[in-house]
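Exercise: predict the fold of this chain.
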Amino acid sequence: MIIVSACLLGKKCRYDGKAKLNNRLVKLLKDKEIIPVCPELEGDLPVPRPPAEIIGGNGFDILKGRARIKNREGRDVTDNFIKGVNKVITRVDLKDIRMAILKERSPSCGVNCIYDGSFNGKLKDGCGVFTARLLKEKIPIFSEEETGKLINQGLL
């Protein structure tokens, strides 16, 4: 089975109330067993909601308690993100997961880069908190921007 960020499959769960439907990815996953997830919704965050960014680190730092996630209004939403990650991990049988395809730049699902915490659109290297948790479980992770890589490696 493949874990996929629900927004990439057309679910309107992003902070702005929109989806990030990726038609190419949907076609590639057509005959695959997938598990759509949105850790932010699982953490009881509303749709829409103020955008949130990781402050002072990356997803691994969040898991270690060394960084926080705050929304643009300054509210600390770290506990919501952690709750959502834990709910997904509890719900999904990780031994059946082949890989995850997640939304790049998200504070939950970013794979290679996330926003830098300044809310000015700047990116930094690092991953989101859900991605970090899956990587700790040794699950291969790809962003939606790496579908070519998945095809070339025969993974999709």
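Check your answer against the key: Residues 2-152 form one domain.
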